[in-house]
UniProtKB/TrEMBL annotation, chains A, B:
Annotated DUF2520 domain residues: 122-245
Annotated ranges, domain Pyrroline-5-carboxylate reductase catalytic N-terminal: 4-85
Pfam families in alphabetical order: DUF2520, F420_oxidored
Superkingdom to which the source organism belongs: Bacteria
Protein name per Swiss-Prot or TrEMBL: Rossmann-like and DUF2520 domain-containing protein
Amino acid sequence: MISIVILGTGNVAKHLYDAFSATNQVKILQVVGRSKEKLAVYSKLSEVSMDYGNIKEADVYLIAVSDDAVNEVSQKLADKKGLVVHTSGSCSLDDLSPIQRKGVFYPLQSFTKNKKVDFKEIPICVEAAQKDDEIVLKQLAHLISEKVFNISSEQRKTIHLAAVFVNNFTNHLYQIGSEICDENKIPFELLHPLIKETANKISVLNPHEAQTGPARRGDKITINNHLRLLENKTHKEIYSLLSNSIKKDYEQKL
Amino acid sequence: MISIVILGTGNVAKHLYDAFSATNQVKILQVVGRSKEKLAVYSKLSEVSMDYGNIKEADVYLIAVSDDAVNEVSQKLADKKGLVVHTSGSCSLDDLSPIQRKGVFYPLQSFTKNKKVDFKEIPICVEAAQKDDEIVLKQLAHLISEKVFNISSEQRKTIHLAAVFVNNFTNHLYQIGSEICDENKIPFELLHPLIKETANKISVLNPHEAQTGPARRGDKITINNHLRLLENKTHKEIYSLLSNSIKKDYEQKL
Ligand SMILES: NC(=O)c1ccc[n+]([C@@H]2O[C@H](COP(=O)([O-])OP(=O)(O)OC[C@H]3O[C@@H](n4cnc5c(N)ncnc54)[C@H](OP(=O)(O)O)[C@@H]3O)[C@@H](O)[C@H]2O)c1
Ligand SMILES: NC(=O)c1ccc[n+]([C@@H]2O[C@H](COP(=O)([O-])OP(=O)(O)OC[C@H]3O[C@@H](n4cnc5c(N)ncnc54)[C@H](OP(=O)(O)O)[C@@H]3O)[C@@H](O)[C@H]2O)c1
């Protein structure tokens, strides 16, 4: 049985709380947060506290607060014997500066409030300053996920960068698609199946093979028609830049 | 019972053939194509022909050939009494110029060879020169899909443009993500669950609400770190342009 304390009451705190609660090998000793309302969700099944000066002794402390508060919260744990980890893709191990036994427990997923996820499929990237602690984190991660990876702070930076492209920027393309639909009174829902299939395709084809469309074919007529149709200047620029980037990828391979 | 002839033996022809074969209200009279090998797949259950001068009489002709061959193939059907439709998102009704009873039967999805799709969920956009024919196409579409829409050639152009953003360009962002991973010896598979969840989120949040990341937060430090990490000049440009576009969207709302 591994005992843990969760610090933070946001999205990631809640998803990890639920995932660990569903195993019977973790005892969640306490949830520590700033907001009484948010703590109420946890108070039925766990001890809760708003006092960062009164944190229980545990095997592992999970700091699941906003990136820029990770260091501040870690200060409150400086005298703890347990292993202190944050859950951030962009913070490094050093952001837990005052801590001796420190690590990272980063679930590589984009969580949404009230939207359940299947934790078994979520890659968990772990890192620890000490070898023994890495083993503890891997054990902990394996209780909720089948996909556990040792990832250094350096590698995590790269993953976070790639995630910005495939998650944040992709979502922005959905946003542009939805604006184009709105302007022309077409329900954006028409594109939902296409969006989902585009994402699901990565299981059977790598993106290089899966690429289709006018830029891939070098179809200048369609590209020019599209540029004429686009009214928003930024959307035009994005269309040109991405089309040229696709063209370049395939010209190189000829 | 509606009788149809399918012209073409590519991706869309095969998926439509399978979908219609699974209903018992359509009789596929003939599949017409240029390649003996490709026709072989159909010859067990249907008549096949390589002779475009010897096409059977049917209620509906589905032209599922490459966009730039749609007009050429339609010429061979000029004397038919049946309704002639193409399956293209980018061709207009007028590309079937020699035909009187003409229409469009456009399944709004990205098909992959050998990858099954659930046709029930695929929006089918229909259009016809004559009202009666539109009714026939809607009946036909409803046999395989629950989502059937009247979409004009003008609207279809817009949908195709939006689809380039959410499908072709999104796939290119996956490609960039996979290159960033490769360069740093990180398996791209790590990002698969994130990619799928990003797409699935559109069912519960619109893209404007779902947007996250450094540009959304106005986190200049992370943006500059990322630009420094990126070595590829085009990737840097794409990162800047999309980040600025996101920033602008949220500044406007302040
Ligand atoms: N969201 C994701 O999809 C995701 C995925 C993987 C990793 N992560 C990482 O997980 C961590 C938490 O993210 P999240 O999405 O759960 O954030 P969130 O939903 O915005 O929640 C942030 C939490 O941090 C608390 N907090 C903020 N500033 C604080 C401070 N100065 N002192 C104490 N508590 C503070 C907030 O408390 P109040 O409610 O009182 O403001 C809230 O409980 C971050 O490091 C993030 O990078 C997020
Ligand atoms: N792929 C998609 O996801 C998708 C989705 C919706 C709509 N569409 C539309 O559906 C149509 C077919 O696309 P597809 O993806 O099925 O294409 P595809 O897999 O590339 O197949 C193209 C077919 O067209 C035939 N063809 C090409 N030029 C021809 C010519 N001059 N005369 C006779 N046949 C010719 C090809 O014959 P050979 O095999 O002998 O070359 C092949 O059977 C296009 O209008 C496309 O825009 C495609």
